Amino acid sequence: MQVVVRKVKLPQDYPYIAEVLNTCLPEPITAQDLELDDSKIPSQGHLYRDENKLLAGFDRYVIVAVNAADIPIAYGISWRAPWTAHGELNHRLVVDPRYRHMGIGQEVYRHLEQWAHSIGASKLNYEIRDEDNSALQFATQLGFKINRHVFESVLDLSTFKLEEYLPGISKVEETGVVITSLDKLDGEIALKEQALYELYRDTSYDIPGFSGEYFDQQEWKKWTLDLPGSSPNYLFVAIENNQWVGVAHVLYKGATSSFYHEFTGVRSSHRGRGIAQALKIKSIEAALEKQPQYMRTNNDSMNTPMLKINRDYLGFRAVPGLYVLAKNI
């Protein structure tokens, strides 16, 4: 099949890109979602070499493969953010299943790697669904190797027995820890966001698979508090002696009447006391007010404590997740 690989034309390509991406995403995405994400990213990138001559800065290269009618049937993006580990690029490549095994993916990838070479990247990261054997074979043939496994889990909220878990909150609160939602906390918004940012930053470094630098506060806000479905009443913090020691944040997904558990973090000095479990129960309690069908989350395979909370304690069940692959170039 004759195809042409070209740069994206926006906004007209958004609906077709969303259609392609929805063939592999666990939750549907819309053209409006894509446009909103793009609006958060500067249109002009800035790449440079650090003191070790590794690629740094930010930029992206976005392409599609189109058919004879100029309709995108495959999507590819190579990008790095300011907080991406130096030298590295992140890739995503999706071909509409109806057009696979025709060489389209190889052609899109050729353009992506060519751009990576042209800007001096030294490592490429790539994510694929772990049940997609065809995509795994494609990636390994290109020289990618599995680096990590990100497990996805789903909790059926229609049958969740909240009353069985509420004592877990009381047990933690009896030790002097206050667990409350962001909207119920007094104080200036700027000060609360500053405290929350520092809590996210300090607990994120301990997450298995985390690399690079952390967001600055402005970028962090774009990709946490300003995410679709985020709300102050769906963000819970644990406070002890006026110190913010833990956080849990869930996002409402109106299209599927569900929630996504975006983040849980507890300071290392306060772990092992049941605070993470209590925060998760609080977030589930708030979510249940919407009468959702389920809650979804992701955990790195090396994050054993969080996997134990989600699956053994709360009853999340395993569903297909992601392989994170890498390739040195």
From TrEMBL:
Keywords carried by this UniProt record: Transferase
Location of the N-acetyltransferase domain: 3-167, 177-329
GO molecular function: acyltransferase activity, transferring groups other than amino-acyl groups
Alphabetized InterPro entries for the sequence: Acyl_CoA_acyltransferase, GNAT_dom
Organism domain of life: Bacteria
Signal peptide (UniProt feature, chain positions): none
PANTHER family according to UniProt: L-2,4-DIAMINOBUTYRIC ACID ACETYLTRANSFERASE, N-ACETYLTRANSFERASE
The name this protein goes by in its record: GNAT family N-acetyltransferase
